[in-house]
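Project channel, design review

CF: Before we commit to the Nephila pilipes constructs, I'd like one complete example in the thread so the newer folks can see what an input/output pair looks like. Taking SCAN box domain-containing protein.
RD: sounds good, go ahead.
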Amino acid sequence: MGLYLINFERRAQIPKKDWVAYPLAVLPPELSNMLARETPDNANNYNFFKSLIPKIYKLSSEKLKQYFYTHYETPDKSWKNYAQELSSYFPES
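CF: and here is what came back for SCAN box domain-containing protein:
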């Protein structure tokens, strides 16, 4: 997601005041729902918009627990691949 926004910022040929509207069209609806609850000033502020994105993608502890318990090793994957997949659930550690 970070790379998408970097590329958008580099290539955007529209006024910065309109930057929120363009990526909003391709991002998850949860983000637009969060933005709709904000004040009009915050909803049109690109920096504020960028600060909401990590909140959408951050997994709760309950969701991580569900991923962990439902994830399983398959015969076509090595243990190293399995461990890598599990560790991808914990990017902040």
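RD: helpful, thanks. The chain is about 60% helix and 0% strand.
CF: The chain has a mean pLDDT of 78.
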